[in-house]
Amino acid sequence: MARSTLAGLILLAAVLTAQQQPRESAFRQAGVCSRCHVVQVLEWSASKHPAAGTGCQSCHGKSEGHVANERNEVKPDRLPHGDREVALLCASCHAAGCPKTSKTSGCSSCHHAHALSNPNDKQLRQTAAVTEDPRLAEVRRHMAEGERQVTRQDWRAAREAFAAAARVMPDNRRAASRARMAERRLNPAMPGLEIVGDAFDPESGLPLHV
Ligand code: HEC
Ligand code: HEC
Ligand code: HEC
Ligand code: HEC
User: Fold this and answer.
1) 172 domain residue, yes or no
2) Which of 9, 108, 155, 176 suits a disulfide with 185, CB 3.0-4.6 Å?
3) 44 close to ligand 2 (CB < 6 Angstrom)
4) What is the pLDDT of residues 50-85, one digit of tens each?
């Protein structure tokens, strides 16, 4: 019994290490952007774009002013918004459109800009599946720990827990948005604005009165 548990642990460790490696190299590949955008690096590392050499700067531009500013007062060089602009960006490399569906527009209705996976498709598969994705239990555990830390107002621990959930499932939007909220509580300062009182929006983490 003890031996099989140990073997299980060793196997688990091996699986975790194998999963960890591409993620770490994704952080290295994302370079300076990974300093402030952990969630997006995780999303992007779930796709084949890193292996294809399509990095943050391929889509957002070099963005030197944005990096130097640190507060997004200077926007990245390129920030496409909406179906039309995003499709134009995709088409700049995928000139023939979607090889699977032959679509030439609406890329973002089926492909997440970073993870490239289709969130709607996944939901369909989840309800149809007999067994649940085993990662969900782990995600739920981290999310519950995160919410527990939120009630204690330990924003650092909350951020760690939500980020851990996002690492397990990079395309989980809830984990990403909770990690962002905790990050905002941890670094509440907003340039040019004075925060009045302690009240904040529980979803975004932004102060209610400035
Ligand atoms: C020193 C910190 C820092 C670095 C480094 C950094 N960013 Fe940002 N970036 C921010 C902040 C702060 C925001 C606004 C808050 C957010 O959305 O997380 C932001 C927002 C963005 C946005 C969304 C802009 C918007 O207003 O919708 C994009 C796209 C972006 N960054 C891309 C990049 C890319 C690409 C790099 C690497 C070349 C990079 N960032 C490096 C801090 C940084
Ligand atoms: C294939 C192109 C592509 C690549 C590669 C890419 N992005 Fe984006 N990114 C986008 C698009 C398109 C949006 C806008 C999505 C929208 O508004 O619906 C976006 C949005 C963002 C945002 C705004 C917040 C959010 O999550 O929507 C940030 C921050 C960001 N990207 C950072 C990064 C970083 C950091 C990297 C590298 C790890 C990266 N992006 C790689 C296309 C890309
Ligand atoms: C700077 C060039 C570039 C841009 C911009 C770009 N791609 Fe790609 N993409 C590639 C390359 C190169 C590959 C790997 C070869 C291939 O499959 O065509 C790839 C692969 C893919 C794949 C298959 C891999 C996977 O993970 O399933 C999808 C899906 C994809 N891209 C979607 C998009 C979407 C959607 C956009 C717009 C948000 C986009 N790409 C923007 C260069 C780019
Ligand atoms: C109606 C939904 C839909 C739209 C719209 C769509 N795609 Fe796709 N795309 C898919 C599906 C489904 C796949 C197959 C995914 C898989 O195999 O996991 C796919 C696969 C891809 C692939 C990888 C093909 C391969 O051989 O592995 C690329 C690249 C791609 N799409 C690019 C795009 C681009 C660029 C656009 C916008 C011009 C776009 N897609 C629009 C659904 C769509």
Assistant:
1) yes
2) 155
3) yes
4) 999 999 999 999 999 999 998 899 999 999 999 999
